[in-house]
Every structure is written in structure tokens, then in C-alpha cells.
Specification:
The complex is a heterodimer. By secondary structure, chain A is an alpha/beta fold. Chain A has one domain: Rossmann fold (3-Layer(aba) Sandwich). Chain A has 6 helices and 9 strands; from the N terminus they run αβαβαβββββαβααβ. In chain A, helix 4 links the parallel strand 7 and strand 8. Chain B is extended, with a radius of gyration of 27 Å. Classes of the chains: A alpha/beta, B alpha+beta. Chains A and B meet through strand 4, helix 5 and helix 6 of A and helix 1, strand 4, strand 5, strand 7 and strand 8 of B.
Chain lengths: 202, 265
């Protein structure tokens, strides 16, 4: 009888171990939000929530984000497949809190979903290509093709991450969210990569 | 032997009871006791009418009430497999949002004139505000176009009284739109550009030479430069863009700084 009980407990432990390891196998995402933006806290919190909706295990770094901390995530060899950065930048680069730029030559790896929330981040496909988000059915890059204000980005992010992500494709989530920000040139979103990808964690 | 069996049985029952108590407690605490909002039958019927005008005959699959933190209001959503329709508490249509889009089957690519004809007809069919006029029409990506219909105050468009709409002209298909209906406090422009710049100089200690551009538009007051400011009304404003990417709104009626923003470049 004792042997049976011990066997039962061992079996339960094995099942629990399997379930735990499966749970940890979901892809990870990281949110970086630059404290120099007046809306960094909200944008960061919305993104963490949105990544959770997409099934990612998400961590965040908000405030004095550094180039080295972002590069450490970009060059991760683990389970990181997605990232969101709310910061300042331009075509082909984005900055840390101190204004140090991350350019295409700093970027490596194969990413499923990357959203760089700084002006002109998607003016060209340079960053999208650097993250290897183009040319695949389950990858995409979201950014801005023009200038965007932190106030408009905050509104867009609220509707994008909390109202639309997880319900439709990233492309339509961005378009639906754009309509929530009044004005014609206020949300110049641009998507590279798959237009049918929903952003769901692998 | 029997003692072991009893212990095992007792532990099993104890675990089941404990789990039940935890689950019951969680469910009880999670369920709101009062003020349960639901989507009414009338709201569903209104949504069905909108869906019909959008040529979407799919069955209603979901209804939900969502709280919009930015607007501090509840909104009522009715969805089928193609669209989500959003209504406000007064059962007014607030927006339409796509879950999927149809593939383009026609080979003829729509011209700007085709796009204009399609969207102005659809705008009328959907009974969207008559007093708004087409102020913007451009191609958004390879398939989708964007149009804005806005209220015109003596040549200044108010984006807060507008319809921002995305559509596919080849399919006669609306992708998404939101209706904004916040009236401007005034439409009187009595402050000249140079006076507005002078006000910004005095109020915010900025240098005139740092002003990159100055344009007139309707802007909403905010607390960007004054954390105590609770005013969120809409004013005709001089929008001053500075060389450091900051933006200043100067009320073009009363010549006060009413808020600002910043470009994240």
C-alpha cells in the first residue's frame, strides 16, 4: 500500500513538472519605456498588458532605459521573441534615456513581433529588416512612418494594446486603434512583414 | 494498511474541500455585486442595422460592455465575425472596427476619384454627421485608404468633431471608423501669430528664434505645461513647434498658453 502511495505521488510530481516546463516554454517579450517621454508609464503599462493578452511572458524596464540593457535583450539567446520600445528616435535608429542610439548594425536575431514607438521608426524597412521580421508569415514590425507626438502615441497605444490586440491581426489592430486618435496626420502607423499575423506568442 | 488508506482518503477529501472553498471565494469576490452593465436588445438591433449597411450579414457572436479609461465612459460592443460595432450609453454609434478584411478580387486599382466617390456614398449610407466635410483623403497602405470628415469653423477644421475612416474602395468595404463629437468652445481667431509667439516667450521662457513653425488648428487644452490645469475644452489655437520638438498651444481667442505636447523624435 505504501508503495502504491509513493508511486502515486511520484506520478503526480512528474505530471506537475511536465506542466510547469510547458508553461515556461511560452515565448517572452520585453517592454522598454523611456522616462524622458511624459507618457512613458502609461505606454509601458499598456504594452505589458497587451503582450500578456498575446500569451507572452513579459517583463519591463521603464524610466532610465540604457542602450546596454536593450542590447542585452536584443542579443538574448533565450526565449525572447518580442519587444516594444517607447522612446525617441528616427529613421533606422532609436535612443535610450541618455540619447545613445541603437542602429540596424546593433540588431540581431529572429523576432516575431517588434514595435518601436518613436517617430520615423518605420519610415524605411531598415529596422524591420534588421529584426528579421519581414518575409515570414508569422512575423511583423510596427512603427511610425512619420512624426508622432507622445500624447497621440499614448492614445493610440491605449486602444492598440488594450482594445484591439488579440482580437484581430496586428495590421487591423493598428488601423482600428488609429481611428481612436482624431486628426489626419496624427497616427502614421506603418507595418512591415505579415499582414495576417495576429502577434500571438509561439 | 487500513490506517494508510484512511489517511490517503482523508487527505484526498481535504484537498477537494480546500480547492472548492478557494474557487468559490475567488468567484464570489470577482463578481461585481452591483451596477452590472449589459448590452441591451435595442443596442443589438441598432448594431444589426449598421452591420446591414456594411453588407455584413454574419450572426452576432459577442456583446460586451467596456470601460474606456481615457474617456471615463462605458461603451457597448456588439460583434460578429467581421466587425465590432461600438455604441455609447445613449445608443449613439461611436465606431466600427474590423476583425477581418475581404481579399481584393478585382484587378482594377481604384483611383483617388474612385475612392472619393465610394467613401462619400458610404458616409451618407451610414448616416454619419452631415455637417462634417471631407478634409483628407490619401492612400494608407497597399490596399487601404484613409479619409477624414471634419467640422469646418471658418477655414479651421476641428478634428474633435470628425469621422476618421479607413476603407478599401475596390471592395466597397469600410475597414474602421470612429466618430468624434466634441464641440469647440469658440471659433473666433482674434490673436495674431506674432502675439501668440510673444505669449509663449513670456509664459514659458522660450526664445522666439526656437519657433520652427506656427499653424492654426483646433486643440484641446491639457496639463502639459501646467500640471494643475484640469481644462480639456477645445479652442482655436496657434500651434508652435519648437526646435527641441516640444509643441505649445496658444489660445487664438484669449492669447493664453492652454497646453502642449512633444514629438518623440
Amino acid at each position: 500500500m505504501n508503495k502504491k502511495i509513493v508511486s502515486c505521488i511520484i506520478l503526480i510530481l512528474i505530471i506537475l513538472t511536465c506542466l510547469t516546463s510547458t508553461a515556461h516554454a511560452s515565448a517572452s517579450a520585453k517592454v522598454f519605456s523611456n522616462g524622458k517621454s511624459g507618457t512613458y508609464k502609461n505606454c509601458g503599462v499598456y504594452a505589458v498588458d497587451g503582450f500578456a493578452t498575446l500569451g507572452y511572458s513579459c517583463t519591463s524596464s521603464m524610466g532610465s532605459i540604457t542602450k546596454s540593457s536593450m542590447l542585452s535583450w536584443i542579443k538574448n539567446t533565450g526565449n525572447g521573441y518580442a519587444m516594444y520600445v517607447h522612446t525617441f528616435g528616427g529613421s533606422g535608429y532609436f535612443n535610450d534615456y541618455n540619447g545613445n542610439s541603437i542602429t540596424t548594425s546593433d540588431i540581431s536575431g529572429n523576432w516575431d513581433f517588434v514595435y518601436i514607438d518613436s517617430s520615423y521608426s518605420a519610415k524605411t524597412s531598415a529596422l524591420a529588416n534588421a529584426f528579421h521580421t519581414t518575409g515570414y508569415s508569422n512575423r511583423c514590425f510596427l512603427g511610425w512612418s512619420g512624426a508622432v507626438t507622445t500624447g497621440n502615441a499614448e492614445k493610440f497605444n491605449y486602444y492598440f494594446w488594450l482594445d484591439n490586440v488579440g482580437h484581430t491581426t496586428i495590421r487591423l489592430a493598428a488601423i482600428n486603434a488609429s481611428t481612436g486618435v482624431p486628426g489626419s496626420g496624427t497616427t502614421p502607423t506603418k507595418l512591415y512583414g505579415s499582414t495576417t499575423y495576429k502577434g500571438t506568442a509561439r | 494498511m487500513k490506517k494508510n488508506r484512511k489517511i490517503f482518503l482523508f487527505s484526498f477529501i481535504a484537498i477537494i474541500l480546500l480547492t472548492s472553498v478557494i474557487v468559490y471565494a475567488q468567484t464570489s469576490f470577482d463578481t461585481p455585486v452591483e451596477d452590472v452593465k449589459t448590452v441591451s436588445a435595442e443596442m443589438i438591433n441598432i448594431s444589426k442595422d449598421v452591420l446591414k449597411k456594411l453588407d455584413s450579414t454574419e450572426q452576432i457572436t459577442n456583446t460586451e460592455v467596456v470601460y474606456d479609461e481615457l474617456q471615463n465612459k462605458n461603451f457597448y460592443k456588439v460583434s460578429n465575425s467581421k466587425y465590432t460595432i461600438k455604441l455609447d450609453e445613449a445608443k449613439n454609434l461611436v465606431g466600427v472596427y474590423s476583425i477581418t478584411t475581404n481579399p481584393i478580387t478585382t484587378k482594377k486599382v481604384a483611383t483617388k476619384e474612385d475612392a472619393k466617390t465610394m467613401i462619400t456614398n458610404k458616409y451618407k449610407e451610414l448616416n454619419l454627421p452631415e455637417e462634417y466635410e471631407l478634409s483628407y483623403l490619401e492612400k494608407f497602405d497597399d490596399e487601404i485608404w484613409q479619409a477624414n470628415f471634419e467640422k469646418n469653423y471658418n477655414g479651421i477644421y476641428n478634428k474633435y468633431e470628425s469621422v476618421k475612416i479607413f476603407f478599401i474602395p475596390e471592395n466597397n468595404e469600410v475597414v474602421a471608423f470612429t466618430i468624434f463629437n466634441e464641440k469647440a468652445d469658440s471659433s473666433v481667431v482674434s490673436v495674431k501669430k506674432d502675439d501668440a509667439i510673444l505669449t509663449a516667450e513670456k509664459s514659458l521662457d522660450i526664445n522666439k528664434s526656437d519657433v520652427v513653425s506656427a499653424t492654426l488648428s483646433m486643440e484641446k487644452a491639457n496639463n502639459y505645461y501646467d500640471s494643475q490645469n484640469a481644462d480639456t475644452s477645445i479652442h482655436p489655437s496657434w500651434v508652435l513647434q519648437m526646435s527641441d520638438n516640444s509643441i505649445v498651444y496658444v489660445d487664438a481667442t484669449n492669447n493664453n498658453v492652454i497646453g502642449g505636447d512633444c514629438i518623440n523624435e
